[in-house]
Amino acid sequence: MKLRLWPRSLIGQLVFAVAVMLFVAQAVNFVLLSRSQKQQTLAHGGGMAVARIIDAMDRQQRGLPDAEGGHEDRRGSRREPKLWVNAAPPPVPRRAVPLPDLAAYVGNLLTEANIPTEEVQAWALPQRPRLGRTRLPGRTVLVAAKIEGRYYGVRSRVLMGGARLQGFLVWQTLSLYLLLLVPVMVIAWRAARPLRDLTRAARANPATRDTPPLDEEGPSDVRDLIAAFNAYRARIATMLSDKDRMLGAVGHDLRTPLASLRVRVEQIDDEALRDKMIASIEEMTAMLTDILALARSGAGTELPERIPLRELIGELAADYRERGQDVTIANVADVAVVARPMLLKRALRNLADNAVAYGTRARLSVAGEGARVRIIISDDGPGLTDEQIRTLIEPFARGEQSRNRATGGAGLGLSIARDIAEGEGGTLTLANRVDGGLDAVIELPLVA
């Protein structure tokens, strides 16, 4: 399974990008502050140690005592000397932690002061409990430098603020996340919400006429985009209305002369010629009806309503059986869809007509799968090739290559069914069955 880190939504991408960049900035800040604090600690502890070593060397040259001896405090406990000058190295506790950076820093300072050193070492001494007294900040360090055969040991306090620095950076990071991410999320949500509405409107059926325009809200760029979309959809609605009026006029103007022509043809004495001419006129009338139905498949004034598919499939199969056609019902789930009843019934009739004409018989079934409903029209025909499945769903494409309407139709049935299915928010697919035959499937959203 591929791990997807980059979010898809606008809000997710903005928040993720800001969070990552803020984390990187804080990481860089932590590294710089850590180095600065380390340098400050070395300068404080190392500078004090070098100053005391130089002071001890000066005292030795002037014949003053070599070291500060230990003495007892008020409680009678022996305190360790803060300065050690001896031929032997100073004693180091077992749990002392070596500090090579501090030793190197002290060595560099002594070298810059023209004091030749043979060896420099530094340790962080273990913390000791101070009964009844407040614990001093930092750690006690011991720095020992071997100069001209003598060891100069110095004890001093060094502030160790690593934990405090980490805590400060954690709180700083959380505060920055709160101060930056919340406004970013608000701005992104303000821009993303109207964009989601715009996406839903763009995916809707463009033939739906009386759809109210989207509210122009969000940032100015988003408002301009919504305004352009509303104007674009209004132009589409105007063009579709003009198309419907034109088709209505064409249909009326063509049907009238066809009806008049049929009346005249019926007066012809030659019965064979009269029947052929009447068949041609009927074919032209049926083709005109199919063309108008295809052009208007996504339009019309019919309102969507809740349709129980079990009742719709039962009525459809009963109509076919009354005409003596082999249309049966298989498994039908008790589900419903929201669609325009007459258009949906026309799409199912077109598919059932094809199944009866090319596949001997039709079997109707309904299956609910998740949030979708599949209306399946199955036949027992030879099936279709992949190329035929791709092309037959287009207007005027026919599987039967002759132009005889009695054997092949006008090639508009599947196109009308597809446009109706898409107009109701669904799809139409054709698929061959393994055991032979073809399944035509209309998939629509399920209504609870």
Properties at a glance:
Heat Shock Protein 90; 10 helices; rod-shaped; Helix Hairpins; 12 strands; 448 residues; five-stranded mixed β-sheet; alpha+beta; five-stranded antiparallel β-sheet
Any overview of this molecule?
This protein is an alpha+beta fold and 448 residues long. The protein has three domains: 1-67 and 80-126 and 138-200, no CATH class; 204-301, Helix Hairpins; 303-445, Histidine kinase-like ATPase, C-terminal domain (Heat Shock Protein 90), CATH 3.30.565.10. Helix content is 52%, strand content 17%. The chain is built from ten helices and twelve strands. It has helices spanning 10-61, 100-112, 162-203, 220-265, 271-295, 309-322, 341-359, 386-391, 405-408, 413-423, and strands at residues 83-86, 97-98, 119-124, 139-147, 150-158, 305-308, 327-332, 336-339, 362-369, 372-379, 427-432, 438-445. It has a five-stranded antiparallel β-sheet with strand order 1-5-4-3-2, covered by helices on one side. The protein has a five-stranded mixed β-sheet with strand order 7-9-10-12-11. A hairpin with a 2-residue loop joins strand 9 (362-369) and strand 10. Helix 3 packs parallel to helix 4, helix 4 (220-265) runs antiparallel to helix 5 (271-295) and helix 7 runs antiparallel to helix 10. The radius of gyration is 46 Å and the shape is rod-shaped.
